[in-house]
Amino acid sequence: MIEVENIWKQYKLGATVEVGKTFREALSQKLTRKPATTSLDSRNQHFWALSDINLSIDSGRTLGLIGHNGAGKSTLLKILSRITKPTKGQIRIQGSLSSLLEVGTGFHPELSGRENIFLYGSIMGMSRRDIEHKLDQIVDYAGVEKFLDTPVKRYSSGMYVRLAFSIAAHVEPDILVVDEVLAVGDKEFREKCLGKMDDVAQSGRTVIFVSHNMNAIASLCQDVAWLDRGKIAQVGPAHSIISSYENSLIKSTASERASMLFNGSLSEAISLQQLIVQGVDNSYSVTIRSDEVIRIKATWLVHTSIEKLVMNMALYHRDTRLITLQDVKQPENAAEGSFTTVFEIPANTFNNADLTLAIGGKELANGRWCWAEGVARLNLVSDGLQQSVEAGDIFSAFGKGTREAG
Amino acid sequence: MSKPVTIIKPASDAARLSFHEIWKFRELISILAMRDIKVRYKQTALGVIWSVIQPLFLMLIFSLLFGRLAKIPSDGVPYPIFVFSGLLIWNFFSAGVSSCSNSLVGSATMISKVYFPRMAIPLASVGVSLIDFSISVLVLLALMAFYAVMPTWQFLLIPLFACGAFISILGIGLWLSAITVTYRDFRYVVPFMLQLWMYITPVIYPTSFIPAEFRWLTYLNPITGWVSGTRSAFLGTQIDWIACGCSLALSLIMLSVGLRYFSNAEQRFADVI
To answer: Does residue B8 belong to any structural domain of this protein?
Structure first.
């Protein structure tokens, strides 16, 4: 049972400037009793990350939180998990709450898998006895038996994420709060995560889940709250809120959608300028004949140069990834400026299908990534009965990607 | 079945520390401390021997500079033993304070992504220094055997003085760790401050070296009592209980100020870090 009453959260704009404030500045401010620099200075403007949030979540319900980037979803989760305090308002939480805002926070690369299970488990609030008791389950679920005594810095990123999620999933709180963590990891992992969260929900616990993936929200959540610029735009049964959210997306351009939907730290260095699906510019929903070659052209703007970059796109049918394409075989450096990637999928790959497009990239040099799901909907129609491809991952053999500079 | 109720409210200036909460997370504190200890000498060839080499070399250099060349008196015991027994608590204090004050900034991602009582981090960070201290005690005993200096019953008081030093470390370390979150200046202030501090503490010289009329000044140093006390405990000389009393009083005052500051600042860590 969670009751959120009139929650407000204020941040200072340009918080980075605020953090870097030197002791000298603070001291001279104190001594001269001057207000912090000038109030016109943008760094001292405040903004409300959350304004007047009211929510009531009954025990055993699953609530999805949706909204654009910067709408306040993560702030709300941080307040619920007691990481940060609200500026105004009050929340009453009945039962234990544990949150998974980032996979693997607190892992130490030098320690073995086993040692990290104890470390991470106790950070999440489990007792040593609890962890010992569940050790086998955690290891089993993560599938890392063989590497239990290997330092996690030698783990593949998939193993790392699986182990971290597995620990978090075994905390068994009354309320589980999960941020967009499914953006990392492969399809199998996503399904496993969703399955586990579903188990948690089925066992009568409360789940609060943030995602940009509407299919995941639709399949997991009973209720949805849509946050827009710090306010609750709509709250109610999942399907009706999701459809009105998607309707609002249709009215926006592709680059607006991408900036709203992009996740990951690479999105600071690169942004999507234009997206042309089958010759149609910027539209959210495009109807394509299934006997045509599907051509997706994306123009990217690089703000700060990126080392060893690959761009990807993927097509989803509900929550299943059908196809993943990469634009270049070998990662290439991207200088400031713009470039275009073109992805092509052969004709007759799909039959009648309603697909969603995800697009993004990964900097292989230091693991930064960005990914936006649901930037467009591809509605494939066929009039004949062509062979259709079974659901499942189909990699680049079924299509190709290219990159052009400028 | 009644479940625990948590009330989340805005930050307040009169935040109370929840010792209950910290007790609940005591295992986390020990696990974090163990993590630091385990990680410390990973991928080093010499490993834990570094904990022996570092103070030994410092002792050698000090003995040469201050004992041989500057001829600083050492209350009648061999200077190497004299200076090592002083360095023992001093190193514990100095390493403890510096790791404590950097601990929160070093765990920024954890603080902004998971909830747990923030005090677990600075508390656990002292663990490594405690291990180094214990190793140094063994080294000193070996040195004493080498110089044929016999320990007396006073040796048993050492844990007491170490506890005293621990209170001093927390008193100043908690405050420093919290203020470093907002003002990174203290990352540069602390090493510098500790360097100067050593020279105003009777580590390389005995208290008797200071003119009698100024000796009371050393009582204002919260670490003097523990340094001189530990030395006397090892060497079997008269323990300066007044210095210890002053150090205890000062350390407790600093600890209460530090705890207060920490519990208020703690509420904003995630926003500022």
So the answer is: no
Tokens of A34: 């001057």
Is B2 inside any structural domain?
no
Q: B9 in a domain, yes or no?
A: no
The CA-atom distances, in angstroms, between A377 and each of A47, A249, A259, A373, B273 are: 34, 11, 17, 10, 40
Distance of alpha carbon A87 from alpha carbon B9, whole angstroms: 8
Subunit contact A85:B268, Cβ cutoff 8 A: yes
Q: Are A207 and A197 in contact (CB under 8 A)?
A: yes
Among A1, A58, A84, A94, the strongest candidate for a mutation testing the B interface, having the largest count of B CBs within 10 A, is A84
Measure in Å the smallest separation between the Cα of B35 and chain A Cα atoms. Answer: 8
Q: Under a CB-based contact definition with an 8 Å cutoff, are residues A44 and A36 in contact?
A: yes
> Which residue do the tokens 């926006």 mark?
A252
Stretches where chain A sits below pLDDT 50 are 15-20, 34-43, 386-397
Complex ipTM value: 0.84
CB contact under 8 A, B11 and A85: yes
Average pLDDT over residues B63-71: 88
pLDDT in tens, B231-264: 999 888 888 899 999 999 999 999 999 999 999 9
How many domains, chain B? 1
Q: What tens digit of pLDDT does each residue of A44-93 get?
A: 567 889 999 999 999 989 999 998 877 889 899 999 999 999 999 999 99
List, as ranges, residues 377-406 from A with C-beta within 8 Å of B: none
In a domain, B12, yes or no: no
pTM, entire model: 0.78
Q: Which of A97, A105, A111 sits opposite B35 (nearest CB)?
A: A111
- Domain range for B76 is 17-272
The residues of B whose Cβ lies within 8 A of any Cβ of A are 3-11, 25, 27-28, 31-32, 35, 38-39, 42-43, 109-116, 182-186, 267-268, 270-273
